[in-house]
Amino acid sequence: MKKGSMFLVLAAILVLAAGWMFKGYPGKTAKPPLKVYVIFQEDEGRMLLEKFKKETGQAYEVIRMSSGEASYHLFTMNKTGVDVVLGGPADLHEQLKSSGKLLRYSPRMSDKIPAAYKDKEGYWTGMYMGALVIGVNEQAWKDDPKLARLPYPERYEDLLRPELKGKIEIPDPETSGTGYTLLASLAQERGTDKALELMHALKSQSSATTFSGISSAQRLAVGDVAAGVSFLGDQLRFVSSGYAIRTAIPPQAGWEVGAVSILKNGDNKAAAKKLADFVLSKSAQTAYMNAAYSLPVIPGIKPNPLLTGVKAEELLTSYRFDVAAMARSELLARWKEGEKGGR
Question: What is the pTM for the complete model shown?
Answer without folding.
Answer: 0.85
